[in-house]
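hiii, so i know i said id send this last week but things got crazy w the move. better late than never?? heres the sequnce for the chain we talked about at the cafe, plus the structure i predicted for it. fair warning i was half asleep when i ran it
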Amino acid sequence: MLDDNPSNVTVLGIPAETGRWLLIPLGMMILLCLGNLYTWSVFRKPLEEELGITATQSLLPYTVSLVFYALLMPIAGFYIPRLGLRPVAALGGIIVGLGYILSSLASNVEMMILTYGVLTGTGVGIAYGVPMAVVARWFPDKRGLAVGLTIIGFGLSPLLTAPLANQLIAAYGIQPTLRILGIAFMIIVLTIAPLLKPPPKDWQPRQTSPRAASAQALNYPPQILKNRAFYGLWICYAIASLVGLSAIGISSSVGQEVIEINPTLAASSVSLFALFNGLSRPLFGWLCDRFKPHYVAIASYTLILIASIMMIGAQKGQVATYLIAFCLYWFNLGGWLAMAPTITLQFFNPNQYAQNYGIVFTAYGVGALIGTLVTGQIRDLFGNYTYVFYPMAVLAIIGIVVASLLLKRSTPNKVIEP
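okay and structure toks below
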């Protein structure tokens, strides 16, 4: 795949300037397999009938998988430099495949939690960062766009894998479907993993923009945890994740309970939201290449604030208000899933991206955990989802303030003393 001479590098037998673009769809394919995690709702009802479990119990494997996904991201980040990108991707693919295959043999929810929740979530957390790390190294001149295009595979996965899973379940049943998907995902990841080689150390695109070239020459902070910008990014990412994942979790319920639309329309609207979630990733990545990240973050939070105000005043029958607001919520969550890795690359040493983004990604885990718990408690306490949007509006304002003050690249001498 690579030539030893940096001036004559090829990717898949094609000159690197052109061939590097092939790594984006390859990374998308891996993330498409990993993103099937978000199609769990397709499996819930068949599993409830197959295993004789309640709706609450059928949610547990998915919840546990998200926890392990978030936990393994930073751990995998620290092992990537030691083990290499390709072995880590292959290991993650094997564990994901085994998680699905062993889930097909589960006879109770406890086993399903262990196989799907722990194993599959672990595999996703291990492999998730590899495609982005690879394209980030090959695109020092277009990091945001390249990362955003790659990660779109994860966001759009439910649009492609959910209908496939539905058809397989209808044809073969739930357990054979899990087995088929596990084998397919393992084969796809293991086939692509050997192709995910980083560029030679001194390789640069021939037509690197002046801005990208100057960025390469920057002195990066020696320790991410001592840098003020890290805390700005972490808080902003946590807020965006909390709001976005909360909105995702209640999208259909709000449509039915607040707007009082029929369940079929509420369910189909989720496909529209998922489309916005996927398309926003390359857009926000590109914007971070073009503008200072705190400006892009402020724009994102402004859209979240607008969506929250719209939903606070939403009433029965206002379908357009509901659709626009939740398109904005999903749009901004997808945007932050591209912005956070892009800003990590811009602010901190890109050669340590896997470790650094693993640390930053803990904000996503915290936001997911708090968001899913709090929205349910607010609904139980007040009896209406409308009250969820008040704290969302407040958090959007806090995000604007934090982004304005802290989400700015610090020089090495501007650090927080231990």
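btw Residues 413-418 have pLDDT under 50 and may be disordered. thought thatd interest u
miss u guys!!
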